[in-house]
Amino acid sequence: MQDKIYYLVGNTDHETHDEQCCCGEPHPLPHRAVGASLYEMNSTGLQALYTLLAGKDEVSFWDWCDSQEAQGVYYGLSDDAAKTSAIQEAHNEGRLIINHPEHMKASIWWDLPYGWRAGTRYTEKGAGAADVIHYELNDLDVPQFLLEELERKQVTASRLVWVCRTNDDALRYGNEPYQEDVGPHTLVLASDTDNGYLVLNDARQLDQTIIMRFALYRHMQSHLRGHDVEHDPLVTAQEEIDLLEATLLKIARLLETSPSCSVKAQAISLIQETMQQLEQIRREEAEVN
């Protein structure tokens, strides 16, 4: 399955290195070392993590971790050093660690020092970032929990900007594109169909749990779009159910936010279709068992 993600748990092992050091950075022998474990997330783990982050269940995810075999254990002289070793190794191998979203550059972070845009920026004085996104919510896919965090932290609209990755993409929005400086820790909130990206400058103000939950939200969306579930032998029946239920949640949010009768009618039709698929999957699973 593409874009696998992992969860890093610290302080999972302790051992003495007396003949050979396997820490991320070698140290004189002998010494005591702390281990940090990396777990590959399956559908059950993802679901348990999501309920943990949503504050609904603080037990199931840790029970899931205890039942799993780690994909790797990384060592250092301290817990922080062991985690750093695991993060560096994961980065080298292209692994995404969900509870260290600052390293998930490919999914939620803007990875250039600038962006291309055209036209002037205008932000109503005193407007909040959440207000601007609410105004365009039918066109922007920003989860409700992230909007609530923007409101809680009173993030201003002046920290939002639409940018493109290239000069050619920015030409779709107007003449004479220019480079807009984008600082570090810039979060990609949403995108449009013309390769434009709505980004939030300096997202360090946001709670890390919210950032982690947002990274998981985007990963699940990517998984849903990128797979032909019916013909993918790596997708289990439970994963099919998880993905379809994620679709139902998204449709439910659309129903709550859209005043359009036509949109609501379309959403209800999609819900009925999805529920039928869920029921079919459950029947087939019951027959197998």
Mean pLDDT: 78
Order of strands in the sheet with most strands: 3-2-1-4
Could you say which structural class the secondary elements and strand pairing correspond to?
alpha+beta
The ordered string of helix (H) and strand (E) elements is: EEHHEHEEHHEHEEEHHH
Fraction of residues in β-strands = 15-25%
Count of distinct strands: 9
Proportion of helical residues: 40-55%
How many domain units? 3
Shape: globular
Q: How far apart, in Å, are the first and last alpha carbons?
A: 24 Å
Largest sheet: 4 strands, mixed
Radius of gyration: 22 Å
pLDDT < 50 stretches: 224-236
Number of helical elements = 9
Task: Explain the layout of strands and helices.
Blueprint: E1 5-17, E2 31-40, H1 43-53, H2 60-67, E3 72-76, H3 79-92, E4 96-97, E5 114-117, H4 129-135, H5 144-152, E6 160-164, H6 167-170, E7 178-181, E8 187-191, E9 196-200, H7 208-226, H8 237-257, H9 261-288
Parallel strand pairs: 1-4
Antiparallel strand pairs: 1-2, 2-3, 5-7, 6-9, 8-9
Helix pairs in contact: 1-2, 4-5, 8-9
What is this entry, summarized?
The chain is of the alpha+beta class and 289 residues long. The chain has helices spanning 43-53, 60-67, 79-92, 129-135, 144-152, 167-170, 208-226, 237-257, 261-288, and strands spanning 5-17, 31-40, 72-76, 96-97, 114-117, 160-164, 178-181, 187-191, 196-200.
